[in-house]
Amino acid sequence: MSHDIAQAALSPRERWRLLRIAEAATPEGPLLPPPSGDCVERAASLVAGHLPHAFEGWKLLARVLDDAALPVAGRPLSRLPLPRRIEVLEALAEGATTSWLVRAVTAPIELVRAEEPGVQRALGYGASHAPIARIERHAFDANRIDLASIDEDREIEVDVVVVGTGAGGAPLAAVLAERGHGVAMLEEGGDFTRRDFVGRAVERQALLYRDAGLTHTIGNTLIPLPLGKTVGGTTTINSGTCYRTPEDVQRRWVLEEGLSTLGPGSLDPYFEHVERELSVAPCPPSIVGKIGEVIARGADALGYAHGPLHRNAPGCDAQATCCFGCPTDAKRSTNVSYVPRALRAGAVLYHHAKVTRIVRERGRAAGVEAISVGGEGRPSRLVVRAKAVVLACGAIHTPLLLLENGLANSSGEVGRNLSIHPAGYAFARMPEPVRGWEGVPQSYAIEEFAALGIRFEGGYPPPPVAAAALGSVGRRWTEQLGALDHMAFFGFMLRDTGRGRVTRAGGGGARIRYDLSSEDVRRVVRAQAILARVFFAAGATEVLPGMTRFARLRGLDDVERLETRGIGTLRAHHLALTAYHPLGTCRMGASSTRHVVGPEHESFDVPGLFITDGSAVPGPLGVNPQITIMALSERAAGYVERCVVERERGHARRAERLTKRAIVFDETMRGRCVRAADERALAVTLTVTASAHTRLNDAWRARGVVLELEGTITVEDVAIERPCVGTLTMRPAEERGTLLYDVSFADATGARWSLRGEKHARLFLGLGMTRLHTELRREGELVAEGLLRFALRDLPSWLATFRVATADVLAEQVPASPGA
């Protein structure tokens, strides 16, 4: 958005208010001129151009912040003289209920102020790197299709459709395509190249992140939860850190989730294959950056285990923008590794394709429907029919899609059990220059406390982002900005004990509820104290933990006060947190009543529907999860392939059967059966295809012609569209024409059920044919009785499927009887 547009979006009063806030939040200093109208316009342009849905909210929050000074100073903030304005704003920034308001309003201002040319020249950041190398063109690039550029609806048929191209979808797609299966990959985001991974971090964030990076949890504190929306998913915007699943986590999977085939060692072949594909190796000392020296010095002094992180970025030149797309393609995210592999093997990729519906046929997943996003004019529609459907939209949007479709939730667990690895950080002022932007943003680790569920990892964000994350305002912020080249930065994350939930919000979005547990609050405070001790042992003169209380530590005495007074008194809303690894919302396990998918990643409720992203990972790992998800994705490819092969064989057998049948029709009956135990009425729906190898006139004369039944059944509280088989016995010659239904199926626990029913028609195929007197039995025991009906609204589909072969056809198909 241009400045002119930003100016038009701000009224004179709004512009004046924001300038007065900017003067107090970012006052002039040795490196920084006083804020000007241009500063406000650039901040407005930043928000309006890259976060358009947040622009009106930002202006409203500025007005609320202006009025928040009234209880403190008796006047709006904008009406106070500058010294008093700075004093009041600093007090509001430290308030438990107003700190988030100050940060929300001032962060865009601080970011653009840190981009002032004088600041960049004085501190020496913002220098341009070598030009981007020429991007190679490949024949398989023709398989990349932008759905937003297509102005017509289309339908395709493949073996497997994979929704999502990140860590959960792309590895499986590549494996199956290389085995010769037809694969379609669908991605809601765009298909970008390294030519797009340049420029300001905030511009790239708006391009590559879902909701421009503003996705967050709600609960006892707000926690930002950045998610990728681009080919490559979140792997395109992550730090590149690669850890295997810890063995204690795999033991927990076996003991708590019943995943006996996923114990320690079971995934090692997949880990090795993924690590070879991504060229995983320790971060070289040449690009670790000064932060590695600082942390190593402090950790050595305290006797803590430490070392470089393992990363997937061979040839990295440390441009320090991994989380905004790698400008050299050194980081082997799936957009440059598995996705090209899949395309080279013949897969097709549709991007800007938002999946809205999962198609089912006869109770099985049979494809998806998607609409284009981001284009002009009417959205185009894409239908992909497939033998297997794989969801890999991530731990937030896979459960959201299932909830929107009302699928795979007989356990009630879809969207529950969310873990997020809450993460904190701290700055430390060092006596020597650190220049954290000259190195990999996340390159080094302290391993000492992993067994306690605390893992320290870190490096440095881009300087303008770091300036907005300092957590201070006023003269302190201006002074800290001038010392940014001496600021070290490091972070940590927890293997969290709290759990959240994803539900549908108004307008079709996701509502992410998450309360940080009191145990995790204590561990965050402990982690901040540990990190401060490491920094002070390395020579820091000041540590700035990410929290609104104890926000400035000047020595070990302050650390001890943090440990003795902070633990137990600090609450979740006092902590500055982010999170990056949502997991568990469609968790895998052995029980259909506690889990959404089984050990083979297939839904308990919907055959042919697989989930292979972080939502299937049962619980937090305590490490960055991309290697775990990729290994599970490659493992799941074998199960999806088996489903495809069995489906192909089933289609062949069914086609052969039906071509030899003389009578074929589809029938649906609905109604209620009253449970004998408590007289509760259970809704029942039976949908079947009936077929018989006989002539219709033979059926009319015969005493007991049998038709085969195959379809699905839904019984409230028992089964959701479970496959069923059985027979329909037609006895038209009786005094009252009789039809006997005998259908069997298994519920999610494996228990065998039967549905038996009778129709009595005064005239065959006439009166009485719409009512089926029904009983339900479990393992032979009567459970419920009732009445199902054939509704008139289903008559057109019955007529459309009804087929009777001719006598000539039968003569060719049916062997002559001995007496003929």
Secondary structure layout:
Layout lengths: L2 H7 L2 H14 L11 H14 L1 H17 L1 H4 L8 H13 L4 H16 L2 H7 L20 E3 L7 E4 L2 E4 L6 H9 L4 E5 L13 H8 L7 E2 L5 E2 L22 H11 L10 H11 L2 E2 L2 H4 L1 H13 L3 E3 L1 E2 L26 H7 L3 E4 L1 E9 L2 E9 L8 E5 L2 E4 L5 H9 L16 E8 L12 E5 L7 E6 L3 H7 L5 H8 L4 E8 L5 E5 L5 E5 L3 H20 L4 E4 L10 H11 L11 E2 L29 E3 L14 H34 L3 E13 L5 E12 L3 H6 L3 E11 L3 E13 L5 E10 L5 E10 L9 E8 L2 E9 L5 H7 L1 E2 L2 H7 L7
Helix pairs in contact: 1-3, 2-3, 2-4, 2-6, 3-4, 3-7, 4-7, 6-7, 7-17, 9-15, 9-21, 12-21, 14-19, 19-20
What does this structure look like?
It is built from 24 helices and 32 strands. By secondary structure, it is an alpha+beta fold. The strands form seven sheets. The protein has an eight-stranded antiparallel β-barrel. Strands 8, 15, 16, 17, 18, 21 and 22 form a seven-stranded antiparallel sheet that branches. Strand 26 and strand 27 (719-731) form a beta hairpin. The longest helix has 34 residues, at 626-659. It is elongated and about 100 Å long.
